[in-house]
Amino acid sequence: MLYALLCDDKPDSLQLRLDNRSAHLEFLNGLGDALKFAGPFLDGNEKPCGSLVVIEADSLGAAQSIAAEDPYAKAGLFDNVAVRPWNWAIKNPAAA
């Protein structure tokens, strides 16, 4: 099943994000085919202020564990993280 990780950064935490970006990208790339897509949310100044990550996992608990292992999460970047089951209904390349 697919899960969307909806992550909001803590206010005024851009430097923390930048300091941990390479570890975060390495972590995401290490997920292999389980990672479907990912990218930052942007604020009114087009600066990153959160993340959207969609992964495939066996269960909600497994998806929550993956979210907790993200270097951004470990660094304390996120104000909150919601992990929600998600159905890729439109333009899903796996369904083509």
What do these coordinates show?
The protein is of the alpha+beta class. Helices cover 32% and strands 35% of the residues. It has three helices and four strands. It has a four-stranded antiparallel sheet with strand order 2-3-1-4, covered by helices on one side. A hairpin with a 5-residue loop joins strand 2 and strand 3. It is globular and about 40 Å long.
Summarize the structure.
The chain has 96 residues and is an alpha+beta fold. It contains 3 helices and 4 strands, in the order βαββααβ.
Query: Considering DSSP H and I runs of 4 or more, what fraction of the residues is helical?
Result: 25-40%
Strand content: 35-45%
Bulk shape: globular
What's the average pLDDT?
97
Which H/E pattern describes the elements?
EHEEHHE
Poorly predicted tracts of residues: none
Total E-strand runs: 4
Rounded to the nearest angstrom, the distance between the terminal CA atoms is: 17 Å
* Coarse structural class: alpha+beta
Largest sheet, order of strands side by side?
A: 2-3-1-4
Instruction: Give the C-alpha Rg.
Output: 13 Å
Assembly state of the chains shown: single chain
Q: Please, how many helices?
A: 3
For the sheet with most strands, the description reads: 4 strands, antiparallel
